[in-house]
Fold this protein.
Amino acid sequence: MSHLRHIGIITGAALLLTATACSAGKTTVGTLSFRAHDSPVEVTYSNTPVQGCHKIGLPHGAAHVENNTLVDVIVYRTPKCQKTEEADGIYIPTATSNVTAPGSLPWRSFSVVH
């Protein structure tokens, strides 16, 4: 193997490690609050990891969301952040809120756009 090819492989591996570790340990910075329909109970997530799917900790799901983080999120009507024909993800930009339409399914999980 030539010296330049060996350096190229090492450089490529280092870039791959850097790219995969980029969001490791990062959080949303701020709060994301959920409330069920006609309920005073609110669940608030602070500094949530940006990776993965997060289940909304309300037994019957959420009908209201308030995004006071520095990042955008997507809320899903399924417990594992799956998009289905009947239940697509809803994009919630930073510093905004949203409410489900009357009679629609509640949100069950969310993921962070990063």
Notes: Residues 3-21 form the longest helix (19 residues). The radius of gyration is 19 Å. Residues 61 and 108 are 5 Å apart (CA to CA).
